[in-house]
Amino acid sequence: MECRVCSDSLSALLDGEVTVEEQRSLEAHLAQCPSCREEFDSLAYCLRLTDALDAEAGLYLPPFSGIEDRIGSVSGSFWNLQWLVSPAWAALAAGLLLAVSLPLYWKSTDEEAVLQSQFTSFIQERDRQEVLHHGIIEIEPVGWVTYNPFKLEDAPARGNPFLE
Amino acid sequence: MIAPEHLADLVGRVKSGDVEAFRQLYEGYGRKITNYIYRLTGSRSEAEDLAQDTFVLAFKKIGALKDDRKFQSWLFRIAQNNVYQKYRGKRPHFESIDDEEGPELSDLHQLETALKNPEDRVLSTELQEVIHRAIGELSNKYREVFVLSALHRLSYQEISEIVGRSLPSVKSDIHRARVAVRDKVKRYLGDNYGMSSLF
What we know:
The structure holds two protein chains of two kinds.
Chain A: H1 3-8, H2 10-14, H3 20-32, H4 34-55, H5 64-75, H6 87-134
Chain B: H1 4-15, H2 19-41, H3 44-61, H4 71-87, H5 105-116, H6 125-136, H7 140-151, H8 156-163, H9 167-189
């Protein structure tokens, strides 16, 4: 093993993050390479120093009450939507949504049918009026609109067969 | 340390809004998280505030945690994001030791006392400060992996999940960070470096 390869893996060896095979070959190299051995011992020593440092951090852990006060308002609020996390609540919410939206869908379908019927009646009445007043007999099938009946200028020119 | 099976139970309870379960998680991880933030920011008061923010955010977002066993990594990641969001690219203030020529007489005396008392396992305050500042002088990328590996002893896999980098990259960064810290401490301690009586 080259010293460079060994050196790059020394921290991983210290942390037990090498495979059994890697460990074996690293240890074999360390046993016969004083320079890499010294590097390994040096890194190991620094790790022991930092271990001691961590124990001496002496940080103050704020009491949980401070956090509890802040999350209290979160957990007590309906609008945080945390309750949606529960599968039972999610199923209930989905059911309610379905129950509300289906009648709306059906209602809209009914409204469309009524509108369609009114429109058909309108076209029939329009055609009837045209036959009565202008003598047009070549009327288009009911339900087809080729122009806007409310805008007379859009209407195609139709001749009166009795006057021609 | 909370046992894995107990952890999953606690996290499950917190997900359904159990504040008492969250208190247990706070007692299990509060000091670790505060310590991690302290090592990233170099400020105790900042660490305490940000640790509180981390736990409040964790409580709010715990529903998004898919694998309950990864609670620790997830929590560290929230803490880290909080720190970077707070500093927004600015470097946390750590005093530099590069300008120092060496320890002052009082510090040398303190260090000597520690060296002469092998039974005394407490590191001198000055040496702690040196290590602390050496960590502070690392770039963010190296500092976070150094703290997670050397101080918190997390596995490389966990560290990779927290910092969001690949395993080989984490392995390489950890080694470089350790060498950098070692060099600074070694420079400070001089011939005393490697003396077992420090422990």
